[in-house]
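Justification of computing resources. Each target in the renewal requires a structure prediction run like the one illustrated here; the chain below, 130 residues long, is used simply to show the kind of job we budget for.
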Amino acid sequence: MPEPDQTLPEVYVLPGESHVMTEPAKPPADQSLAAGRRYVDFAIRDLARQFEALGARSSEVQVKLFGGGDVLLAINATSRPTVGKLNCESALRVLDDYGFEIVASSLGGNSGVHIKFNTGTGEVLLRRLN
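Resulting structure tokens:
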């Protein structure tokens, strides 16, 4: 991935949060905490409303979806779906309901992920955490 442009504004997105930009941005050197959208269905619906307010149709949006790993210890996981699995299913369902097409994804697994997203090029660098 090319080095980010040092003149770009910085945006840090915590798990469960989203941020819509009309121009390219980069991750900040330091992290800032903000109130997050903790439920995937709410977050996607909120993003859909923000895209609509900007005049973007779902057919114009490229969705790249990552995460949904089972990072929490599940006791007797065979008896019911895990949080990670439920989040993946919910995200896929809501994206489909809104007519979004997923162009890249990596869902599930047993670890968290660290993602760097270049908003200028659309490139995603994903690293699975131990």
